[in-house]
Amino acid sequence: MKELKFKVKLEGVTSGEVAALSAPFDVEKTFGTRARVPVRGTINGFPFRSSLMPMGGCHRMVVNKTIRDGAGVKAGDTVSVVMARDEESRTIDPPPLLKKELAKNKAAQANWEKQSFTNKKEMARLITDAKQEDTRVRRIAKVMDVLKNGKKWTG
Q1: Which helix (H) or strand (E) holds 153?
Q2: Prediction pTM value
Q3: 3-class SS at 120?
Q4: Helix, strand, or coil here: 62?
Q5: What distance in Å separates the CA atoms of residue 9 and residue 87, rounded to the nearest whole number?
Q6: Which residues does residue 85 pair with via DSSP β-bridges, in sequence order?
Q7: How many Å apart are CA 153 and CA 155, to the nearest integer?
Q8: pLDDT for 45-97, tens place per residue?
């Protein structure tokens, strides 16, 4: 897929809590779908992997804090974007301690496999971001409770 290059103003609140960009092109014509489109590229030279999501009659991409900080931008700034459809498989391996627990419970393992990429990423991040061992253990227990009991992940 060819790369698209464009400049666009980041929308959102200037306090920096939320920012997004609207695709300045027809996503359906470009990517052949009106649904969510996985994309990769750069914002002001900083690499990202994200999705264009249909919202309010157009497609938008959330520009999270990591991307904003890396690109040195905030809501209201005009940014240079290079974007292409992300054809690479999106997989998340569970952190080692969670993997060990999943191996002990087939239902939890099956539910892990059914989770969306985003939910897996959030569960893994919740565990790996913990600095203390006891925090990690509590967070693994929380994730395992959700997976063992087929609950909806709410973070």
Answers
A1: none
A2: 0.67
A3: helix
A4: strand
A5: 26
A6: 39
A7: 6
A8: 999 999 999 998 899 999 988 899 999 999 999 999 999 999 988 888 999 99
